[in-house]
Amino acid sequence: MIQTKLKIKKINISKNIILLVFKNQLEITSTFLRFQEHYESPKFRNKIFTLDEYKLWYTSIKGKFSYYTDWNGFNIPSHILTPFYNKQFKDLTSAENQILELLKNKKEEFYIIGIHKNSRNLKQVLKHETAHGLFYTNKEYKDKIQDKLKQYKLDKLKKSLLNSGGYHSEVIEDETHAYSLDYQVGYLTKIPIFLHFKLKRIYNKYIKQNKININQIIKEIK
Questions:
Q1: 44 close to 57: Cβ distance less than 8 angstroms
Q2: Residue 111 has what DSSP assignment?
Q3: Which residues fall within 8 angstroms of residue 100, CB to CB, at 6 or more apart?
Q4: Distance (Å, whole) CA 19 – CA 21
């Protein structure tokens, strides 16, 4: 069977953050699945697994395999690619191999974020994923964010994120930061409004400092 090469746009949005833009939701979710879940799945983090194993588990917690329509944005540190390069993961898809080929020449540690053009909330998704990138690559940003998070009781939000089945406890602080920054509808009652404003000020300061122009990136994507 001939597998068509995907059209993936690569944008270096900062020194250590690379944005990958896909055509649609199916292409990005099916490409990123094993990379992403090796990083943050509550079941498969840091484990080697097949696509079929993941599908079986995801179906058991969701009632059906809805992964390809559940997610719009992705984010992983570059070291997550190592076991894929080292062939610990078997039966790589052409799309997985395409990602490895696309990023193989960048040697230093970096962060990868992904979005797709058909997202209904493209700007919000880009901001969310960029926040993950800053949290991982900029220690000063991370320290300031953590300082604000400590000032609020966020147990309900963290519990909701953990219960969603999408996140490992190791990444929950980062997710709490990103969702609080978004002030997403599904979690509004669990996110203190003043925390949202404080995180937004920090975020705006650091995207400006790192010369990340969200509006310009959106224009490039479209």
A1: yes
A2: E
A3: 81, 84, 85, 92
A4: 6
User: Tokens standing for 83?
Assistant: 């076991």
Length of the chain counted residue by residue: 222
Q: Enter the pTM of the model.
A: 0.94
Rounded Cα gap, residues 157 and 179, in angstroms: 9
pLDDT tens, N- to C-terminus, the chain (222 residues): 446 799 999 999 999 999 999 999 999 999 999 999 999 999 999 999 999 999 999 999 999 999 999 999 999 999 999 999 999 999 999 999 999 999 999 889 999 999 999 999 999 999 999 999 999 999 999 999 999 999 999 999 999 999 988 999 999 999 999 999 988 766 667 899 999 999 999 999 999 999 999 999 999 988
Rounded distance between C-alpha atoms, residue 67 and residue 154, angstroms: 27
Q: 116-139 burial string, b = 16+ CB within 10 Å, else e?
A: bbebeebebbbbbbbbbbbbbbbe
